[in-house]
Design brief:
This protein has 132 residues and is α+β, with helices and mostly antiparallel strands. The chain has one domain: 3-Layer(aba) Sandwich (UDP-N-acetylmuramoyl-L-alanine:D-glutamate ligase). Helix content is 55%, strand content 12%. It is built from 6 helices and 4 strands. α3 packs antiparallel against α4. The protein is globular, with a radius of gyration of 14 Å. The protein starts with a strand and ends with a helix.
Length: 132
């Protein structure tokens, strides 16, 4: 994963979509750009997927959000055993949800309180926000 500022700087463009396409052209199968409070963008050859950040009333500490996102994304991919576009989209949702647990408390307290049931509940809520 790469964050929005890094993608823009690396590609020399203000457009996140253009940056993602430029990075994709370098060879990776998928590009995930973290957009902080604006969610995350996944781009593959065949798919563009965007999810908003999980809606929280208060963000207490953004430290570690990117690491939590990466952990949730990679954990879901490892657990699923496949890396097709649908699974990548679900992995982005899991990463987004794990980041939400990280930012709603100070230090690692939010992550320590998260469990699989809570993560899956938030993933379902987030899915309702991104489906038509």
């Amino acid at each position: 994963t790469i964050n929005e500022a890094e993608a823009r700087q690396f590609c020399g463009t203000h457009s996140v979509i253009r940056a993602a396409r430029q990075i994709l052209a370098l060879g990776p199968r998928a590009v995930v750009i973290k957009r902080a409070e604006y969610g995350a963008l996944l781009l593959t050859k065949d798919r563009t997927f965007w999810t908003p950040a999980y809606p929280l009333e208060e963000v207490r500490d953004p430290t570690g959000a990117g690491d939590a996102f990466a952990g949730g994304l990679l954990g879901h991919l490892a657990q699923s055993g496949t890396v097709d576009d649908r699974t990548l989209c679900r992995a982005v949702l899991h990463g987004t949800v794990c980041a939400s647990f990280a930012v709603e408390q100070f230090s690692v307290d939010g992550i320590e309180q998260a469990d699989q049931k809570g993560v899956e509940a938030r993933v379902r809520e987030l899915q309702t926000l991104v489906s038509a």
